[in-house]
Amino acid sequence: MEALYKHQIDFISYLQRLLQEGTFTSTYKFAFLHALADICIEKEIPDNGRLVISFAEIVDKLIVLYWQHAMPFNEELPTGALLQSTDNQAKIITDITELQQNGIRNLDQAKQSPYWKSIYRNTMNTLKQGPLWRLQVLSRQEDCYLFPHIKNRDYIELNPGIADCFRQFHDLVVQFARQGWIEKVSKIQQNQSVIGRAGELSDFLFGTSRNSLKSASLVLKDIQQGNCFYCQKPLKGNAEVDHFIPFTKYNNDLAHNFVLAHKACNNNKRDYLAAPVHRDKWQEQNLVLNTSQITRELANYFVCDPKRTAHVANWAYDIAEKNGNKFWLATKDVFI
What is the pLDDT of residues 232-274, one digit of tens each? Predict the structure, then answer.
């Protein structure tokens, strides 16, 4: 147990060194760190603790993370989007902007478009030329604590125990990465004249979901036979689409993570994990009985990946149980 605690302390210390001793001319390193944390909760960790992550997985995650950042922030900026690099706009931003201007809403649609080969190639080149080998350069020396630098591969293999640390401290890693990301964007001179309060910038880059969830309402109402997912009473015009695994814990819109609930139930649940009885019902509803229908009807609007959704749920509940957290059961703040 002492060895585990020491490993966790070493992990946190290394993250602090990354931010203090690393060199950041753009936001790519922050995005890469964020991507590693997310991927570690989206996959099953092998028994040997050495998680293999392909470059292709990292490219996908980088595009997802930068998607909102490519949205127009202020018309005074050259393209409307905030700059992500000290010198020029990050290539990934200009590529994603082109996708968005052509009506492409998400990663799955991007992969089916004629623009995918180009953005995939460009992002892969950026990954290899930048954060992949530079993230672990501290005070101008390589310190490969997270994964070894082995060239001529199309994947990285995290060192033993690192994936578990990313899972245990996912919230902290994401907080570190986002804080550094926001500070970098705010310090770029061309951005400073249009950036308001720090909170406004944080909300724009990493705030609540901006996707319209209305497209999910009809299919969920059909699946749930017009009843609230949580209290099972009829929905009467006050329904809201809820992220079953709260958006604050995992800020991606996965279609199989949605349920339809009364506004009162949704507001009372807030950012808590629902009780195991709700989890069992959600798994049966969204990941077993209706997974194909959800994919078929919502793939044009949201990422549809039931396997990833299940892994994220397992991670969220595992961490909550280890930490002794309570789970929300019903309105009027009923917890177990």
Answer: 999 988 899 999 999 989 988 999 999 999 999 999 999 999 9
| 245 and 280 both lie in a single domain | yes
* C-alpha–C-alpha distance, residues 210 and 290, integer Å: 25
- 131 CB neighbour count, 10 Å cutoff: 24
Percentage of the chain surpassing pLDDT 90? 74
240 shares its domain with 134:
no
Same-domain check for residues 182 and 320: no
Provide the 3-class DSSP secondary structure of residue 271.
coil
Q: Domain of 19? A: 2-206
Any idea what the Cα angle at residue 209 is, between residues 239 and 298, rounded to 5°?
65
Specify whether 99 is located in the same domain as 188.
yes
Between CA 327 and CA 275 the distance in angstroms is: 5
Residue 78: partners with Cβ closer than 8 Å, 6 or more residues away: 89, 190
Q: How many domains does the chain have?
A: 2
Q: What is the signed CA dihedral for 292, 296, 297, 301, rounded to 10 degrees?
A: 110
- Residue-wise over 72-89: b if at least 16 C-beta within 10 A, else e? ebeeebeeebbbbbeeeb
Q: Are 76 and 44 members of one domain?
A: yes
Mark which of 206, 238, 260 sits at the end of a domain. Answer: 206
SS3 for 234? Answer: strand
For the full predicted model, state whether its pTM sits above 0.70: yes
User: Is 191 found in the same domain as 241?
Assistant: no
* Boundary residue ending a domain (162, 183, 206): 206
Query: Could you report the per-residue pLDDT of 318-328, keeping only the tens digit for each?
Result: 999 999 999 99
CA distance linking residue 329 with residue 287, whole number of Å:
21
Single out the residue of 200, 266, 187, 175 nearest to residue 229, CA to CA.
266
Element (H, E) at 178: helix 170-187
- Return the SS3 of 259: strand
Answer whether residue 199 shows pLDDT above 60.
Answer: no
Task: Give the relative orientation of helices 170-187 and 198-206 as an angle to the nearest 10 degrees.
Answer: 120
Based on the fold, state whether residues 107 and 136 are members of the same structural domain: yes
